[in-house]
Design brief:
alpha+beta, oxidoreductase, eight-stranded mixed β-sheet, FAD-dependent_OxRdtase_HpnW, flavoprotein, D-Amino Acid Oxidase, Chain A, domain 2, FAD/NAD-bd_sf, TIGR03364 family FAD-dependent oxidoreductase, about 375 residues, nine-stranded mixed β-sheet
Length: about 375
């Protein structure tokens, strides 16, 4: 069988490229090197928050919201529309919330400004002393990051919309006179018209020389997950003052240029720490995260284990915002993703072979929308 498109990598970026190509009627094969996806797409919070993205990527994020909600109507992909709230803790952060609200209002992206009282009433579990005000985006989503992308790929496979093969590590893509071949580690060869490589942070098997010159960096994140905490009900994605001081949508605000970092935040800023909370259906809460950076082959340099010092910094700041029981942490882990100075790395290896990776920390929010535009561009529709 000859496919119209083979997508290498069943993370959120690869899966949604396959999804959108199938929607155009293309015969698609999705190849995943592991028994199921366990890379960047499963190591994150599962917050779908276009509000935090730059103006360009916000548009992709908004399209992602549409695609996620369409999918959730077909089956349970763990997609929940519970909104997102940014909590300002001081006047400077509140000023940024007000400025972003005006920007998004002008662009037609809905948000609601909450007073201190309004935040307290809606989120009574948060520490009142921390709260200055809040900015709420009711349309935004959360997902279970360990389940969502794998459920989507399984759905595509079970419904026959996409051929999905697991445990198929691709070791070569070869341009032919017409189309190209894809070869896997166990000797399988697949014929196709087009190949898209969405390899996450796996850079050792395909085109290592290209990746070595790509300026992709590796980011290491640390996150923690509590036991189910049934006495706490966060209702929405919670993003805090440190997030306001970090996310791209706020850095584009005019007043961000005059933002000063308090002494109490200096060490947290150096470690790339900002505090997010995302509560799952069972009551467990993901808390984090931190950001450390290295070159493209820097995972060994960064280390695969969590740094206890960073975990302690995260939890100390988290407890300033939310009263968490002692000994409540059930899991802790380090995640990784590749990121590029141009927001994403796109490279045409051959006429029919394209690399698309390095989407950074915005994949869960924007990949579904970005992949739609990418596929429509590929097929000129």
């Amino acid at each position: 069988m000859k496919y119209d498109l083979i997508v290498v990598g069943a993370g959120v970026l690869g899966t949604f490229h396959a999804y959108h190509a199938a929607k155009l009627g293309k015969n698609v094969l999705l190849l995943e090197k592991d028994a199921k996806q366990k890379g960047s797409s499963t190591q994150n919070f599962g917050q779908v928050v276009p509000s935090g993205l730059s103006s360009t990527w916000n548009k992709y994020g908004q399209r992602s919201l549409v695609h996620y909600l369409e999918l959730q109507q077909k089956a349970d992909f763990t997609i929940r529309q519970q909104g997102s709230v940014y909590i300002a803790s001081d006047d400077a952060e509140q000023g940024l919330l007000e400025e972003l609200r005006e920007i998004h209002s002008d662009e037609g992206y809905l948000s609601l400004m909450f007073s201190q009282k309004g935040v307290k009433e809606r989120f009574p579990d948060l520490n009142p002393a921390y709260i200055k005000s809040g900015l709420f985006y009711p349309q935004e989503l959360s997902v279970d990051p360990r389940e969502m992308v794998n459920r989507v790929s399984e759905y595509l496979k079970e419904t026959g919309r996409v051929h999905v093969h697991y445990n198929q590590k691709v070791v070569a893509t070869i341009q032919k006179i017409t189309g190209c071949e894809v070869e896997t580690e166990d000797g399988n060869i697949y014929d196709t018209e087009q190949v898209i490589v969405c390899c996450g942070y796996s850079f050792e098997s395909l085109y290592p020389a290209i990746f070595a010159e790509s300026n992709i960096k590796i980011s290491k994140l640390q996150m923690l997950k509590t036991k189910p905490l049934t006495g706490i009900n966060l209702k929405s994605n919670i993003l805090t003052g440190l997030t306001i001081r970090r996310y791209e949508s706020f850095t584009e605000c005019d007043s961000f240029q005059s933002l000063e970092t308090p002494e109490s935040y200096q060490e947290l800023k150096e470690k790339g720490i900002h505090i997010l909370f995302k509560q799952a259906d069972d009551g467990s809460i993901i808390i984090g995260d931190s950001h450390e950076y290295a070159g493209i082959n820097g995972i060994k340099e960064l280390g695969c284990d969590s740094n206890p010092e960073i975990d302690d910094l995260i939890m100390t700041e988290a407890r300033r915002i939310l009263a968490l029981p002692e000994d409540c942490i059930a899991e802790r882990w380090a995640g990784f993703y590749g990121q590029h100075e141009d927001d994403i790395f796109v490279h045409d290896v051959e006429k029919c072979i394209k690399i698309i990776t390095g989407i950074g920390g915005k994949g869960m929010t924007s990949a579904a929308g970005y992949a739609e535009a990418s596929i429509r561009s590929l097929y000129q529709v």
